Amino acid sequence: MSSPQATSGEAAFDPERFLVVPARTFDDLEVGEVFRAPSRTLTDAHAAAFQTVSADNHPVHYDAEWARRHGHSAPVVHGLQVLAFTAPGATLFPHVIGEVFVRFTELSCTFTGEVHSGDTLYPALTITALEPTEDGGATGVVTTAATVHNQRGELVLSGQHKYLLRR
Which residue ranges does the record assign to the MaoC-like domain (predicted)? Predict the structure, then answer.
């Protein structure tokens, strides 16, 4: 079976122009823009999968009795797993910046509250700074505040990401 061809007046399909959202450049971004990731309720299966991948076998993450004896109400989800929810690819940000992304250059975070199986997380990236680099104006650094709140509105992670983009 042959594939349909473009008819007169209709442009041929171009996979490189098939965008989720219109791509923008560094100069089109604005301080204060927020890129949210979908909320997600963590399950024991998520925690077990991350434990397997990370090889972090500390009992605080899987042993309910050990966790309780050490002051936790339940096993604690791995902090790096919570941080992973702030990945820019979990939001529309990479689609918004299209082909201008050069690299993820830096991240930091503070874990401000425990996360347990059954918690629902709400990650977001907010642009806090846009700084042209000293390379003749070819690139710029986007700084975002990375936050994760739980279902009770508590901030459980606060951090910062930096990305280098072409201008």
Answer: 31-131
Domains in the chain, start-ordered, CATH in brackets? 25-166 (3.10.129.10)
The model carries a pTM of: 0.87
Cα–Cα nearest to 74, from 41, 111, 119 = 119
User: Distances in Å between the alpha carbon of 94 and those of 45, 123, 150?
Assistant: 28, 15, 24
- Could you give the angle at the alpha carbon of 97 between the alpha carbons of 41 and 92, nearest 5°? 20
Tokens of residue 157, six digits? 């992670």
- Beta-carbon contacts of 114 under 8 Å, excluding residues fewer than 6 positions away, are 72, 73, 76, 77, 156
pLDDT tens-digit map of 65-87: 999 999 999 999 999 999 999 99
